[in-house]
Each structure stands twice: as C-alpha cells, then as structure tokens.
Amino acid sequence: MRKQQTILLLAALAVLMLLFFFGKTVNPNKPSVQSSAPAAGESLNFDDILNRSKQNLSLEQKEVLSGLEKSLVEAGGANKIKAFKALSSFWKETARVYEPYLFYLSEEAKLENSEKSLTFAAQQFTISLLDVSEPSIQNWLAKNGKVLFEKALAINPNNDSSKIGLGACYILGNISDNPMIGILPVREIATKNPDNIFAQMVLGLGGKKSGQFDKAIERFLIINNKQPENLVVLLHLAECYEMKGDKSSAKEWYLKSVGLVKNAEVRKEIEKRINELK
User: Fold this and answer.
1) Which H helix or E strand runs over 20?
2) CATH number of 198's domain
3) Domain tally for the chain?
4) Is the Cα torsion angle 268, 274, 277, 278 positive or negative in sign?
C-alpha cells in the first residue's frame, strides 16, 4: 500500500487506538493536530515546536499565552503545577496544537510525581507515537514517554502496562541501537499473559515496523482471535499481507474490515485497495 493511503486509513481510526489500548484511562477527544514537524532530516527541538506553533495563533491567543507563560515564570511550589496545567489546557483546548500540550502535561506530571499522573501523561506520548510516521517526531515522543514511564515504574515496578509502554518507546521510537531492550520485557509479559492485548499489539507493530511481517501477523492474529471486529487490527493484518506480497490474503482482510468502517472516506480507500489487488 502506498504510504499516504496507509496514513489515511490508520489516522482515521486513531480514536479507536485510544480506547483499544487504554480504555477509559485516556481522553478519546484528541484535538486536531496542527503540523509542527521539522523539515526532513532536522532534529526535533521543543523550542522550535513552540515557536512554530505560536506563529499560527491569533493576536488574542498570543496575549492569553503570554500571560500564562508569565505566570509560570513567577509560580513556585504547587502553583507551578497549576501553571503547567493551565498551559497544557491552553494548547489542547484553545490552540489545539498537540505537541505543546504533551510537553506541558509531562512537566505537570513530573512535578506532581504520582503514578497516576505520570502514567496518564506517558500514555498520551505512546498513543501519539502509534499515530505518527515522521521519524523525528516519533523519536521526540518516545524520548519523552520513556522518561515518564521510568518515573512511573520507580513508584510501581510491577505495573505491566507501564513496562509495555516503555518497551513501545524503544521499539517504535528509535531511541536505542538495541531494540531488544524494549522487546524482551514486552515479550516476557506477552508470554506470561497471552491475553494482554497491549503487549501483543506493541510486538505486532514492532514486527511490522522492522519488516518482519510473519511475526507481526502472528501477533495481530492473536488479537483478532479475541477481538474479531477490531478495525485497527484488521487493517494492520491486511497491510502486513500486502507488504509481504500475499495479495489474496490482503484482500481477504480488507474485505473483513470494509463492512465495519463507518467513515465513508476510509471505506472508499479500502474498497479502492481491494480493487487494485484483484
């Protein structure tokens, strides 16, 4: 499948990913994302993200933001947490730019330093990591998510979801030359508990990303056996079969998915792919 078609299909189903991985622990109302991606080959720096994001603000929004930033500089103690919270809320609800929202949410969580706040913030980075294809953004998301998951695991070392999230940062974010650092803990959890859908999904995505399509398919099939109408998994299976050259199987999985898709644009793209595979 052509890259832009893959992005269209999976991005349209991003809200399902939210519920699929974390259920009610994550806000499914992810705002529309304005692009703050760097040019190809450019490393991602938050100051650059922030400056680019500010350029799209209205004069009134810039004035509000200036006041919030001033409050952050002047704040201390518990008030600093409130200042970070106000900034994260501004970027999410008012400006509707996701990366600054994530950054300030993470700073708020670090100061609060509770397992709940740290894992919530870390999960937002992981969800976004699953939803983007630009390597520099993936890397930035993974690095930030890694810090938060590590802090959460320092509080509760037995949280399997945090272990899997940390593994996802290594597997999908290119933050280490040794992806086994992330794979081994996730694989151990999946072996111990095959019903852990999050672990199976991360391993499937890791296999797909590395071109190990048979391994990815094995993981996605485990999920499909338990959740046969999960659209995200159906599309991943179809894409894996297509990318390994098995057009017949790819068509079969696309056909299984198309009847479950309510979005007309996505359904049209899937039907187009089915026709092209004939």
Assistant:
1) helix 14-22
2) 1.25.40.10
3) 1
4) negative
- What is the pTM for the complete model shown? 0.82
Strand (E) or helix (H) holding 92: none
Q: Provide the Cα torsion 113, 116, 120, 121; round to 10°.
A: 0
Per the domain annotation, does 201 fall within a domain? Answer: yes
Residue with tokens 């529309």: 32
114, 63 contact by CB (below 8 A): no
Residues 83, 68 contacting (CB under 8 angstroms): yes
What number of other Cβ atoms are within 10 A of residue 263's Cβ? 13
Residue 180 lies in a domain: no
Q: Which domain holds residue 2?
A: 1-29+193-278
Res 43: pLDDT: 60
Sign of the torsion formed by the C-alpha atoms of 14, 31, 53 and 80 = negative
Instruction: Judge whether residue 59 has pLDDT over 60.
Output: yes
**What is the helix (H) or strand (E) element at residue 114, kind and residue range?**
none
CA atoms 183, 185, 190, 195: torsion sign:
negative
Judged by average pLDDT, the poorest of 7-21, 123-137, 176-190, 223-237 is: 7-21
Higher per-residue pLDDT: 212 or 12: 212
Residues 5 and 13: their CA atoms lie apart, in Å, by: 13
Q: Is residue 234 part of a domain?
A: yes
- Phi/psi of residue 183, each to 5°? -70, -45
Predicted confidence band at 19 (pLDDT cuts at 50, 70, 90)? very low
What Cα–Cα distance (Å) separates residue 150 from each residue in 125, 154, 165, 169? 13, 6, 10, 11
- What would the pLDDT profile of 153-169 be if each residue is shown by its tens digit? 999 999 999 999 999 99
* Residue 258 within a domain: yes
